[in-house]
Design a protein that fits this description.
about 110 residues, mainly alpha, 3 helices, about 20% helix
Length: about 110
Amino acid sequence: MPCVYATRAACLRGTSLYDLCSLYYTSEYWKGAYGEAIYPIQREEDWNVPLEITGTPIMPPSVRRPPGRPPTRRKRSRHEYTTRLRKCTRCGELGHNRTTCSNHTVPRPM
């Protein structure tokens, strides 16, 4: 599947978006893949599993925790963003803070 920028560029050039997608995502491909009957699996007692597979122990992966303290906030994805408007504590307007405030006419509270 193409990314957002590729789809925008294709729209500006007048190219079809379907030409950018893989054939695996077309409905004809899915119809062909699931056109035949899919039968349910048998009971686990009736399975014919080779001995080299049943005799092999399955261990969890050897993964070490990274050093340092674990993060307390989740990491945002690339496409996720938040815009928080700043509020000035001197004049109370939105869009800037106290250090960048250009409104010098507001008296300071006593």
